[in-house]
């Protein structure tokens, strides 16, 4: 297990939230922080990051698990409103070197996404050259849009 000093997510979580750019603090809850995926070529690709260092869903407390479920549901609704996506994909692997910290991808699936880029193939949007990544200014604009949308009161 990585320590807070060597884990990218732990280091970012320890930063003063007000000092983080909007793309790194779309939503901050008790157990989770939402950020725009830094290396994505798809606008609105979000990452829900555990605020404490855990590596598996099985390591969550009941409160963290409940908050994660509600948060991914609310983010899916916000992405649908903001982007007109047909649905969202939600995936959790947390195994890339340096990113073993538990994080959950919430990905807007637009109606015009080509068939060969759907499902697990959508992760090709994280493997593109930096020149194709969503620019930081656009990530910040999206973050502001999503964080100011009305909150759904829930079920």
Structural summary, described in words:
This protein is α+β, with helices and mostly antiparallel strands and 155 residues long. The protein has one domain (8-147): HIT family, subunit A, CATH 3.30.428.10. Helices cover 26% and strands 15% of the residues. A five-stranded antiparallel beta sheet has the order 1-2-3-5-4. A hairpin with a 3-residue loop joins strand 1 and strand 2. The termini are far apart.
Strand percentage lies at: 15-25%
Order of helices and strands: HEEEHEEH
Largest sheet: 5 strands, antiparallel
Distance separating the two termini? 37 Å
Radius of gyration: 15 Å
The CATH architecture term is 2-Layer Sandwich
Task: Look at the helices and sheets and give the structural class.
Answer: alpha+beta
Supply the number of structural domains: 1
CATH fold name, please? Answer: HIT family, subunit A
CATH superfamily: HIT-like
Counted by DSSP, the helix tally is 3
């Amino acid at each position: 297990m990585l320590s807070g000093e060597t884990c990218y997510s732990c280091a970012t979580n320890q930063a003063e939230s007000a000092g983080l750019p909007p793309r790194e603090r779309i939503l901050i809850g008790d157990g989770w922080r939402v950020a725009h995926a830094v290396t994505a070529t798809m606008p609105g690709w979000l990452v829900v990051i555990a605020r404490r260092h855990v590596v598996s869903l099985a390591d969550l407390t009941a409160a963290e698990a409940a908050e994660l479920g509600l948060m991914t549901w609310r983010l899916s609704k916000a992405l649908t409103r903001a982007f007109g996506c047909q649905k969202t994909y939600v995936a959790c692997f947390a195994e890339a070197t340096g990113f073993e910290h538990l994080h959950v991808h919430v990905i807007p699936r637009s109606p015009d996404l080509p068939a060969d880029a759907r499902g697990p193939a959508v992760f090709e949007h994280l493997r593109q050259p930096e020149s194709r990544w969503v620019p930081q200014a656009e990530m910040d604009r999206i973050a502001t849009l999503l964080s100011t949308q009305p909150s759904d009161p829930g079920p």
